[in-house]
Specification:
The protein is α/β, with parallel strands linked by helices. 37% of the residues lie in helices and 19% in strands.
Length: 404
């Protein structure tokens, strides 16, 4: 069974093609037949497509004014040139999509129907950086062949176990009844890395108190106890929580009403400020990309340094806030683009947690191999860096749904 995964993030489009015959015979995530990644933010003038298949790597520049055209170019690399792995795109048996927001309606993998598409579209105001990209991917496949089954795998599903006292906001209860609650996001990633943590440590998942840090252009932190999520930093939308690339994270809600009264901003303007002009970009005035921020810090830019310091502080605050509900901490996990690749972020986040007897091995941190423990031998808390495999987790859910 050939399963294509389209994983659209706020700044990227990751894709993988898997060929699965019997899932139960697969112990660890297999290498995809084909992998592709579009980075839409690497340059203001173009998106960068990187494709790898059969040991061949290619790089292409894509126009940013039409993402569906970019997705089509990406998909065509499966059937053309040196990265060709199938004869026709219709050879694909099922397409799985990561969908950020499913609202209260969807808590498990679901075949894409007109009703599902309508719900994804309806929820765009709650996930403006993501849900439009999911629809672009779905529509791109429909243009190839409407008969190819498509599956939506929802980021919010992992958080159905969060207790009411952590899920419900302290506003009039009627709004909760109307659907305003903490939903949580990056759930596919957090669930995968928590399961992988148990495998790496060779301990039952339900015996571990885990905090997972998904740090990329979007950032979220999740507390996991007894094998299930009990709290997470993102909330009603992916805007809440820690500071991100261009998103503010949590701020005093009165700032919004101040914006409205002082500057006469409407909802669209406030959304734009908080989702696309804040975070690292907003404070530094330079970039939403942490790599650029770190480069500017080396050049002596004090505003870039301030942005980085706020970023680290906000991550530490959220980690600390989860400790009481967990009743301690066994493992701190870093994953996603920044979490997996930035040694300085891991070092700075960990250095304030000495009171937990958490000790980072700086040598291991700088020279790490993925899916390993980078804590010292006498650290009371394990510190793991795990390569998130959202695509593989989505592919497995598609396999089970098709074969159900």
């Amino acid at each position: 069974m050939k399963i294509l995964v389209l994983n659209a993030g706020s700044s990227s489009q990751k894709s993988s093609l898997y060929d699965i015959n019997v899932l139960k015979n697969i112990v660890s995530p297999p290498q995809p037949l084909w992998e592709a990644m579009i980075d839409w933010t690497v340059n203001s003038n173009y998106g960068l497509l990187k494709v790898e298949a059969k040991g061949v790597k290619i790089t292409l520049e894509l126009p940013t004014n039409n993402r569906q055209t970019g997705i089509k170019t990406m998909l065509n690399t499966m059937i053309e040139g040196e990265t060709k792995v199938i004869e026709e795109l219709t050879d694909i048996n099922v397409v799985g999509h990561r969908v950020v927001h499913g609202g209260k309606k969807y808590y498990q993998a679901t075949f894409v129907t007109e009703e599902v598409k309508a719900t994804i579209k309806e929820l765009i105001p709650l996930a403006p950086n993501h849900n439009p990209s999911h629809l672009e991917g779905i529509e791109s496949i429909e243009k190839i062949n409407k008969e190819i089954p498509q599956v939506a795998v929802f980021d919010t599903a992992f958080y159905s176990t969060i207790p009411d006292y952590a899920k419900i906001y302290p506003i009039p209860y009627q709004y909760y009844q109307e659907g305003i609650q903490r939903y949580g996001f990056h759930g596919i990633s957090h669930q995968y890395v928590s399961q992988r943590t148990a495998e790496i440590l060779d301990q039952p998942l339900n015996s571990l108190k885990i905090i997972t840090c998904h740090l990329g252009n979007g950032c979220s932190i999740t507390a996991i106890k007894d094998g299930v999520s009990i709290n997470t930093s993102m909330g009603f939308t992916p805007l809440e929580g820690v500071m991100m690339g261009s998103r503010s994270g949590s701020i005093d809600p009165a700032i919004l009403t101040y914006f409205m009264r002082k500057y006469d901003y409407d909802g669209d303007k406030i959304d734009e400020i908080l989702n696309k002009k804040s975070g690292l970009l907003g404070v530094s005035g330079i970039s939403a990309d942490l790599r650029t921020i770190l480069q500017k810090i080396e050049e002596g830019n004090t505003q870039a340094k301030l942005a980085f310091d706020i970023y680290i502080h906000r991550i530490q605050e959220v980690i600390s806030s989860f400790l009481p509900s967990l009743g301690g901490l066994d493992v701190l996990v870093f994953t996603a683009g920044v979490g997996e690749n930035s040694a300085i972020v891991r070092e700075k986040v960990c250095e304030k947690f000495g009171f937990l007897a958490m000790k980072l091995d700086k040598k291991k941190n700088l020279n790490l191999s993925i899916d390993t423990n980078i804590a010292t031998d006498d650290s009371h808390v394990k510190i793991l860096v795990i390569h998130t495999q959202e695509d593989w987790a989505i592919a497995k859910q598609c396999y089970h749904l098709i074969n159900r």
